[in-house]
Amino acid sequence: MQFTTEHEELRRTWRTIIEREINPHVDEWEEAGIFPAHDLFKKLGSAGLLGVDKPVEFGGAGLDFSYAMVCAESLGLVNGGSIPMAVGVQISMATPALARFGSDELRREFLAPSISGDYVACLGVSEVGAGSDVASIKTTARRVGGDYVINGGKMWTTNGTQADWICLLANTGEGDAHRNKSLICVPMQTKGVQVVKKLDKLGMRASDTAQIFFDEVKVPVRNLIGQEGMGFIYQMKQFQEERLWAGAGTLQGCERIINATIEYTRERKAFGRSLLDNQVIHFRLAELKGEVEGLRSLVYRACEDYLAGKDVTMLASMGKLKAGRLRREVSDACLQYWGGAGYLWDNPVGRSFRDGRLGSIGGGADEIMLQIISKLMGTLPKPDGK
User: Fold this and answer.
1) The Acyl-CoA dehydrogenase/oxidase N-terminal domain covers which part of the protein (predicted)?
2) 5-120 CATH
3) N- to C-terminal Cα distance for the chain?
């Protein structure tokens, strides 16, 4: 993938923001179990970082998706996964379908303030009984006059306790589970929307994750994104960008942990020499570095194909699968070389170990990625077993 001076300027902007506004506060936010989303997102919005690939008429920069990939990769410089995940929801999960299919009125109301950082957005897809199996969601939105009346619940909703609106996937009809769903913009202050609790997670501690209930929640039909019944299709298209984002977002994070481990093992002495002098350690770190570069090549190739209008379902799924597993592998291997220090709660490698585990679960579990890849390879057994 060829990067221009504009791409590099975007990287520099992210690096400056991260060094000044994010990394100095990460430890404090991790301890608190939440970060000030409105404050930080407003700073990111003012710097033009929340809408690089969104329409100019709604406050975006109107650039192509390669610039969003630079955003994802740059966020790997953050000392933890919480903030990159929260920002990723705002940029690549809650807003792409709205930007692409929403009416101008809807985009003025919800997209523009999300790009400026005045609104925090969240995505309502997963439910207690429907995670990777999106088609099985139970939340409903029935038409009553000029409104939708929504009932149900969403789970694992990133940014959920601080969000101003939710991009909600709900059943708006009967019949085929892939053709009866719609995406709807729902203000979180609407009567009947209840944030039940902030979930206590193993990792991503600074990112608030909520369980949300909807009890007779009434919103205008004009809050529908695109066409009724097309929500599942829109969401699947959105998943491709989300999975490319996940691949790109893993690169700098893995490199950051590898580099920190090189520094630590070079300084740490055992039996009269640096730990890094042990061949088993520097060979393993070299091996991991090669794996990161392999993932980078895959992600960049997938992005180029996506920009060229090609179907990247297989490559995006491979990238997502590889990213989740590699983050786990890098964190686990490096933690071993930190010894007892790596097992401490505030150690950067220990944090990566906790945060990185979500990569093989969220946004489509490894098993779902393998299922998609197998289907496209023609090796997935048919329902009748033949």
Assistant:
1) 4-118
2) 1.10.540.10
3) 41
Q: String of b and e for 262-286 (b: at least 16 CB within 10 Å)?
A: bebbeeeeeeeeebbeeeebbebbe
Positions of CATH 1.20.140.10 in the chain? 233-377
Of the candidate ranges 95-99, 234-238, 256-260, the one whose mean pLDDT is the lowest = 234-238
DSSP state of 380: S
In the chain, which residues fall in CATH 1.10.540.10?
5-120
| Dmax (CA) of the chain | 79
Has 242 been annotated as catalytic?
A: yes
The pLDDT of residue 239 is 87
Fold of 233-377: Butyryl-CoA Dehydrogenase, subunit A; domain 3 (1.20.140)
Inter-residue contact 96 to 243 (CB < 8 Å)? no
Rounded-to-integer distance, Cα 143 and Cα 218, Å: 10
- What are the residue ranges of CATH 2.40.110.10 in the chain? 122-228
Of the candidates 312, 187, 155, the one whose C-alpha atom is nearest the C-alpha of residue 245 is: 312
Reported as a pLDDT band with limits 50, 70 and 90, residue 386 is low
User: How far apart are alpha carbons 76 and 72 in whole angstroms?
Assistant: 7
Q: Are the C-beta atoms of residues 299 and 248 closer than 8 Å to each other?
A: yes
The Cα–Cα gap between 194 and 156 comes to 14
Distance CA 94, CA 349 (A): 29
Q: What is the mean pLDDT of residues 61-90?
A: 98
- From 28, 242, 255, 287, active-site residue: 242
- Report pLDDT for 28: 98
pLDDT value at 385 more than 60: no
Task: Characterize the bridge pairing of strands 121-124 and 165-171.
Answer: parallel
State the pLDDT at residue 8: 98
Please give the pLDDT value at position 25.
98
Answer whether residue 64 shows pLDDT above 90. yes
What's the CA gap between 211 and 194, in Å, rounded?
9
Architecture label for domain 122-228: Beta Barrel (2.40)
